[in-house]
Structures are given as structure tokens and as C-alpha cells.
Design brief:
This protein is of the alpha/beta class. It has two domains: 129 residues, Rossmann fold, CATH 3.40.50; 51 residues. Helix content is 40%, strand content 13%. The chain has eight helices and six strands. The strands form two sheets. The protein has a four-stranded parallel beta sheet, with helices on both faces. Strands 1-2 form a two-stranded antiparallel ribbon. Helix 2 links the parallel strand 4 and strand 5. Helix 5 runs antiparallel to helix 6. It is elongated and about 55 Å long. It holds the Pfam family GerE. This is Regulatory protein LuxR. GO terms for molecular function: DNA binding. It comes from Enterobacter lignolyticus (strain SCF1). Keywords: DNA-binding.
Length: 205
């Protein structure tokens, strides 16, 4: 479960840094500009990267702003339910995921699951590809990546159960599959993420 601090969202469009979620500040109601934010807010380097690589070089043609999500492996536990999407949706912004290599399959799972997410950008996208994506996103398009592996619902549920500390029999009951199938899906999950499940656990502690 996300803490109150984890659910907080501030605009980075100007020096006022108005709060957008969980509640809007009074000043933000009188702002005529689209809001841009990053979440989680703790990574100042991520915020600087979004400002320098994206916001300074592209113009948003939409009235609704965007939140750029640090969809990296250390933040994995934030993305095991749709609570984070519901929280960000309270700010009335579109969502863009910036995913590292290990998180591509999970990022595309959420892109498929939620119409509030407009695109997945990969942190190793080259300059020209990033520019092309942002022009399309800021003109109102939703971008889907058909080439990248995507977690299915069973794999997502297994990932969540294992990170919650559940045993193989508990995972079997949760997914309504036999234990042998649990291990088969677990191996497919690990292949899509590119990391053994126990290394994932250690990275996200």
C-alpha cells in the first residue's frame, strides 16, 4: 500500500510547484497551463532528466498535462496493484511510463490495462526515437509497443504473490492453477523480465 507521501504529486512546470494530488492547492485551480509532474517524487535526477530531455524540447498540444512515472525496478512494489493509477488519476493528468529494461514487460502490461496510460518510453530510447514518440504523445496519440514482451494476467498475479511472500501452494490457489503450472509461468515471467525472481526480491527490498 502506498503511503500518503508516496501518493503526493506536485507540478514541476514552474517555481510554484503546486500540489496536484491527493488534493489540488487553491493556486493550481487558477493556472491556465497544463501541469507536468514526475512520480515518485523522491528521485531528483529523474525529475531533472524529464525536464532536460523532454519538457524543454517538446510542446504539449493538449489541455491536459502529464505525469512521467519512474517505472524502474527499485520502484516495482508500487506497481503491484492499480492503486498508483487511481492516485495519479486524481490529478487529472495523462500518464507516461519511463521504464528500464527489466520493467518493459510489466510497463506494457499496465499500458494494456489502463486507458489513462498514454505510452511507455524506455530509458535507453535514442534521441530521434524519443523525439518521435513525444511529438505523437503530445498531439494526443496513445502509443503501443507490439514488439516488446508483455506480462499476461497469470504472470502478473504470480509476481505479486511471490513479492507478497506467498508460498507455491498459496500462489496455486490464488491463480487457480496447479503447482506445476505455477513454476512454468514463473519461468516465463523471469524470461520476460530477464532476471531470476529472487534477484527481483532482493532489488526491491
Amino acid at each position: 500500500m502506498l503511503s500518503k507521501t508516496d501518493a503526493t504529486l506536485h507540478c514541476i512546470s514552474c517555481e510554484c510547484h503546486c500540489q496536484l494530488a491527493p488534493e489540488h492547492t487553491l493556486r493550481s485551480h487558477y493556472c491556465d497551463s497544463a501541469s507536468f509532474s514526475v512520480w515518485p517524487e523522491k528521485n531528483i535526477y529523474f525529475r531533472k532528466g524529464v525536464a532536460e530531455r523532454i519538457l524543454k524540447h517538446h510542446h504539449n498540444l493538449l489541455t491536459r498535462g502529464f505525469v512521467f512515472v519512474d517505472f524502474s525496478l527499485p520502484n516495482l512494489r508500487n506497481f503491484l496493484s492499480n492503486q498508483w493509477i487511481n492516485n495519479l488519476s486524481n490529478a487529472n493528468v495523462n500518464i507516461i511510463l519511463i521504464a528500464d529494461n527489466r520493467m518493459r514487460a510489466l510497463a506494457n502490461y499496465w499500458l494494456k490495462e489502463s486507458d489513462r496510460i498514454r505510452a511507455v518510453i524506455y530509458n535507453d530510447d535514442k534521441h530521434d526515437l524519443l523525439n518521435t514518440k513525444m511529438r505523437r504523445i503530445f498531439s494526443g496519440m496513445t502509443l503501443y509497443d507490439k514488439k516488446t514482451p508483455i506480462l499476461n494476467h497469470v504472470e502478473f498475479t504470480i509476481l505479486k504473490c511471490i513479492l507478497d511472500g506467498k508460498s507455491a501452494p498459496q500462489v496455486s490457489a490464488e491463480c487457480n492453477i496447479n503447482i506445476k503450472a505455477v513454476y512454468v509461468h514463473k519461468q516465463r515471467l523471469e524470461k520476460k523480465i530477464g532476471l531470476h525472481i529472487y534477484k527481483i526480491i532482493n532489488t526491491t527490498l
